[in-house]
Input
Amino acid sequence: MADPKITSSDEVLVVRDLCVDFTSLHGALHAVRGVDFTLSRGECLGIVGESGSGKSVTVSAVLGLLGKGATVSGTILLDGEDLVAASFEDLRGLRGKKISMIFQEPSRSFDPIYSIGKTFAETFRAKSPELPDAEIRRRSVKLLTEVHIPRAEERLHNFPHQFSGGMLQRIMIALALANDPEVLIADEPTTALDVTIQAQIVSLLKELQQHRRLSLIFISHNLGLVGQIADRILVMYGGLVLESGASSRVLGEPRSPYSRALLSALPAWGTHYSSSGLYTIPGNVPDPTRPEPGCPFAPRCTYVLPACTAALPDMTMEETSFRCVLPGVKV
Amino acid sequence: MNPELSKPIQHPSTPLLRLTHVSKAFKLEAGLFATAGRYVWAVNDVSLDVYRGETYGLVGESGSGKTTLARSIVQLVRHSGGAINYYPGARSRLSGIAEPWDIGTGSRQILRAFRTDVKYIFQDPSSALDPRMSVYEILTAGAKYGLRTDAASNAQARAAEVMDAVGLRVADLERRPAEFSGGQRQRISLARALFGKPAALICDEVVSALDVSIQGQILNLLVELKRQYDLTILFIAHDLTVVSYMADRIGVLYGGSLMEEAPSDRLVAGPLHPYTQLLYNSVPRLGSHLADRAELTRAPGTPYNPTVMPSGCPFSGRCPIAQPVCLTERPLLHVAASSEPGLPTHRVACHFVD
Output
C-alpha cells in the first residue's frame, strides 16, 4: 500500500470501516462512511479534505470525543486495543498517555485563569497524582525548552493571554506531549496562525516526530502544507477516503479525479491571472444529510460515467489506493 | 511624523486613489486593568497609489494593518493622519467635484456617492448579508439610501443584470442568504457591490472563508468582472499565492508600514526586503520540502508591538540582518536600485537594500 520502509515498521493505529452518524433535525447525518487507514510507528499521516469531508470527525472518533449524539461503528485499534468498544474510563486512561491531540485555535484550548505552570501541573497530575511540585516544574521546563519557548522557567508564571498565537500553539504541543504519548493528532494546528508562524510550527512538529519517534496525524485543508510534513496522505471527500498513498505520489501523480481537481484548483506559484485562468471545480461540496448513492464527487467530476452514480466504487489498491471506476485518468 | 518618509511615486497615468502618509492610531479604552492614554499604532505613514484599472494586492500577516488601511479608504474607520485622495474621472457620479477629492472632507452626501463608486467586500459572506432580507432587498438596500442613480430607478432590471453577471439565477432574488452555500453567498456580496456600477472594489480576504474548490470559482469571477466592467481592485489577502496570482502590483505591509511594493512578477521572482523574503519562503508550495527551509525553524525574535510608538524599522526585532541603526531610525521607502526603467517602480523600505 505504501512504500516498504513504512510498512516494515509496526502499526500503532489501525482504523477499519469507521462510520460516524449524527442525528440531526433533518434526519441522520452521515459524516464518515467507512474509512480505513493505518498509522505506522514514527510515521506522519496527512489527512486533507475540504470542510465537511469528515476529517475532523474521523480523528475525534479515534479519541472518543464525539459525545452522545454520534453513533460510531467499525474498528479502531490503538496498539491492538479496540477504542470503539472501550469504556469511558479506559479511554480516559489512554488519552494523553498513548494518544494526544492539538487543536486549531490555541487560544481557545487554554483556561484563561490558569497560569501555564498550573495548566502543566493539572496535565501531569491527571496521569500521575503523586508527582511532587519540583518534579512537575522540572518536567514542564524541559518540555517548554523542547518546543523552543525561551526563558521557560519564567514563562511558567505567565497566563495564556501573555503569549502570541504561535507561542500558545507551541505550549499546546508541549502539553500534549506531557505524558509521552505515542500518537499525536494535530487537527488544523496552523490554520489560525500567520504563514511565517505556520512554517515554524510545522518544522517543530517534524522535529518532534523524528526525535521522539512520534506517530503523527496531521489534518489540514492546505495540500502544500501537508505535502511538507506527511509521509503518506489520505484524501477525504464526502466522508470517504478517495485516495491514499505516499505523499509524493498523491501530490505528484494523483489517481483520483478529485485529488487531481483539488491540486489543479490551487493557483500555482508564479502564475498570473493575465496569462491563465484558474481551473475550477464546478458545483459545491456535498450535503452530508443526503449522500449520493455513488461516488460523492460524481456530480462535480469531469469524467463522470453512468457507473459512478449507480454505486460507490471500490478502492483500487495499487501503489496508491484510489476510489474511482476509472483506472486512473490523466488530465 | 517625518513628512520626508515614503514619498508618493510618480506614475504616467493618474491614480484612482492616492494615499499620502496615511496613519491610524486607535486609542485604547481605559478599563479595569488597562492604562489610559495608550494607542494601537495600526497604520503608520503609508503612501501608495492605486491606478485606474489595476489590481493592487495588499499582503501582510494579521495585525499588519491591511484591513485598517482598506477600511480607512471607505471611512469605516477615520484615518488619524495623512490624506486619502480620490480622482473620480469622467465616468463617476462624483465627476462634478474638484479633483482630487480628499475623502476626509466634504458632506455625507459626497461620502455616500463615493461609497457607491468604491465598494467594500467583506471576508465572511455569511455575516455580511442580513439573514432576514431577500437577495433582492440586499442588492437594492444600498441604492435606496445612497444617491439617486439610474440603477436605483430601474432596480428590478439592474438586479437581474448583476445576478447574471455573478453567475446566479434571477429566480434566486426571492431567496434568502441561508439558502445559499458559502461560495454563492460571496457571489451575492459581489452582486451587491456591482449594483451601483462602481469604479473600484476593495476585496478584503474574500476567499479566505471558502473551500479550496470554491475559491477558484470566485477568483475567476473577479477577474472576469474586472475585465467586463473595467474595475480597479484593491485585493487584500494573507495568502501570498492568491495575491500573486490576482494582483498587478503588490504592497507588503508589516507593523502598519509598507515594507516593499513591486509588480507582482518581480516580487515572485525576487523579493528584496528581508521581511518579504521571510514571508515568501514561508509559503508552503507543492514540491518544496521543509529541509530547504531550515532557517524557518528558529523561534521568532521580538514581534512588532503595535502599542509602542514605532521608532525604527518595525521588523527589526525579527530581522536576520538587523543593525543598531534599524532600532532607532525608520528606513525610508525608496525606489530600489534594481528597478527597471519603464516598468512600475519597485520600492523597498530597508536600510540595507539599495
In short: Chain A has twelve helices and twelve strands. Residues 295 and 312 of chain A are 5 Å apart (CA to CA).
